[in-house]
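Entry 14. Structure prediction run on the chain below.
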Amino acid sequence: MLVNDCTLVIMAKAPREKMVKTRLARSLPPAAVTELYRCLLFDTIALALSIDHVDVVLMCPSYDVEELGCAVGYSVPVVPQNGNGLAAGLTSVFSTFASAGRRRVIAFNSDSPHLPPSVLTRAFDSLATCDLVIGPSHDGGYYLVGATAFHPTLFMTDSLGTADALGALLAQSRSLGLSFHLTDTFYDIDVPEDLSRVAAELQLDPARAPRTAKWLSECNRTGAAGLHQRTRGS
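Output returned:
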């Protein structure tokens, strides 16, 4: 049961081979990519649960609900989104939770577990004075978006998932007359260059995302091929 007036919804998928982090497939074997995603997901859940007075929920495509719930041990509620794709998922977050009277709702990706917790705290705080909060990412997208109400047309754009997703969301926000606040610019783990960056950061501070840090350390030590053999044989 949700008890707080702040809800953090992690947009996730079941950790299924060749269905997650597909842009990393050109540099890592499928089993390794899936194991990495599992680490990112668990670390993201831990990050979310570290935020005081916030309810945490996973949202995923309907066909992933049972498998994702089993994968995370039902440590947090898992709910299905309506429809397919990112726009449908984001719309579902706010139609499900903001429309149910939740005053502050944030949709968060599942692959930025290294984000400082203070960024999430400040994002919720900013919703006390504006309609939306948006976390810009370095690739032109965004890693979180929050609102205090459901706006049905907010994500009706052709630019979701492109390098101009942030610009499209800001333009739509302005057209709807919504006030917004931008959080710190950050990055998620999508391409090999992101892996190199987060590996260097977590080597200095592995506690930020311990499962991901351990995976990266093992990958660095054994190489992708060695890791592939280990995960398939485990």
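The domain at 6-233 is CATH 3.90.550.10 (Spore Coat Polysaccharide Biosynthesis Protein SpsA; Chain A).
Filed with the rest of this week's runs.
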